[in-house]
Specification:
globular, single chain, alpha+beta, 127 residues, 4 strands
Length: 127
């Protein structure tokens, strides 16, 4: 899906997204169960982030949860957006799921959560 497709077809409209220091443009839009952020880099490549609600929890929907999913998608873009080209140029990686119950195939490889979960800029980052 392109930015123009999203702008034309999103049922509830889109919000434009900008990230300081990241060249390109993006949009975010939501439905009842998921929020999607589409970012187009200056070189024409795309990143799509899809944040879904917990389908097993009927309380995980509605405007409050849509706002949380939208904020999460924006934070993920801010945190990861500048690393995508480097990661994409690296070795092929299979999809991983955490927790394992979310995997479409129960025999699929799962991810191990990071402990502690990173909450700020990497300590390996040079200034």
């Amino acid at each position: 899906m392109t930015l123009e497709d999203a702008r034309k077809n999103a049922i509830n409209g889109v919000d434009e997204v900008r990230v300081d220091g990241l060249e390109g443009e993006g949009v975010v839009f939501s439905g009842d169960e998921q929020t999607m952020l589409i970012w187009q880099y200056a070189d024409g490549s795309y990143l799509t982030l899809n944040v879904e609600g917990d389908l097993n929890d009927p309380n995980d929907f509605g405007e409050a949860h849509t706002a949380l999913r939208t904020e999460l998608a924006k934070k993920l873009l801010q945190r990861l957006g500048s690393t995508i080209h480097r990661v994409a140029a690296g070795p092929r990686q299979d999809f991983i799921y955490y927790p394992k119950e979310l995997a479409p195939n129960p025999n699929h490889t799962t991810a191990t959560p990071l402990t502690p979960w990173p909450s700020g800029p990497s300590s390996r980052r040079t200034r």
